[in-house]
Every structure is written in C-alpha cells, then in structure tokens.
Amino acid sequence: MHVKLELLHFGQFGIIAIRFIIREPVNEVVGFIKAYYAKTNVARERLKNSCAIGHFVWEPPVNDTIKIILDPSFNQLTKFSISGIIARNKEGLIMAACTYLWENIADPVMAEARACLQAIILAEDMGF
Predict the structure, then answer these.
(1) What is the dihedral of CA 38, 44, 48, 50, to 10 degrees?
(2) InterPro entries given for it (predicted)?
(3) What distance, in Å, lies between the first and last C-alpha atoms of the chain?
C-alpha cells in the first residue's frame, strides 16, 4: 500500500495536522485497516495479560489540608514543557487549577522540577 503524507500546518509547537492520501482500491484499504485492528487487539490482550494495569483513583486529603496534584509533559524536540496543576480540598472541590508553558527545558527531570516549583509558588500565592 502506498500512502502519501501531506503536512497541513506546522505551528510553533510542532505538527498540527497530517492528511493521508491513499491511492489504493477501497477494498485494499479496508483490508489493511482490519488487519491492523486485529494486530492491535492481539497486542492489547498480550499487554493486559502480561502486566497489571492500575487505575489512579483520587483520594481526599485528611482534615482541612489541600492536595495539589501536578502533571508535567515534555517535548524533547522543541524543549518545551507544559505543567498542569490542580489543588483540591477534602470534598474534592477544585480550589485552584492552572497550566504553565516552559521553554528551554533540558530534560524530563527539569520539567518535573519546574512543575514542583510552580506548585509550591501556587500554594503560597493562594495562602495554602
């Protein structure tokens, strides 16, 4: 199968969209998709059987404390990091939420450190 990829938009943060141009009969494309789907299902079952996949469940903090959860992401090509931070009380109500864009981040460890620092600053600014 021959597939041509056409870049639709290349923004500041990377590829925004790609269009696939397929010049094959429809029945060959459908056959390829079905075979690919079957392979991914087999891989998914093997993964499910080979390792325990846990689900994160938020648990409230004790007493009148605030729980702050952070989740940084890192793009090695652009050296950008985006951090998401959420602060919740014991009832689960969101007390604060924010995202931060960081430039010139060297590695994932630095992205995590920046997110931790920003979470501390957020907590101080909010009076937590």
Answers:
(1) 90
(2) RNase_H-like_EbsB-rel (IPR052929)
(3) 58
Would you say how long the chain is, in residues?
128
Could you tell me the residue ranges of all domains in the chain? 3-50, 67-126
**Ramachandran area for residue 16 (φ above 0: left; ψ -120 to 50: alpha; else beta):** alpha
**Spatial CA neighbour of 78 closest among 15, 14, 16:** 14
Residue identified by tokens 């007493």 is 63
The distance from CA 112 to its chain's CA centroid, rounded to whole angstroms, is 14
The rounded distance, in Å, linking the Cα atoms of 33 and 97 is: 40
Rounded Cα gap, residues 51 and 82, in angstroms: 29
Return per-residue pLDDT of the chain as tens, 128 residues.
Answer: 455 545 454 455 554 444 555 566 667 767 767 777 777 777 777 766 665 555 667 777 777 888 888 888 889 899 999 998 888 888 888 888 989 898 999 888 888 888 888 888 888 888 87
Q: Which of 61, 59, 114, 64 is nearest to 85 (CA)?
A: 114
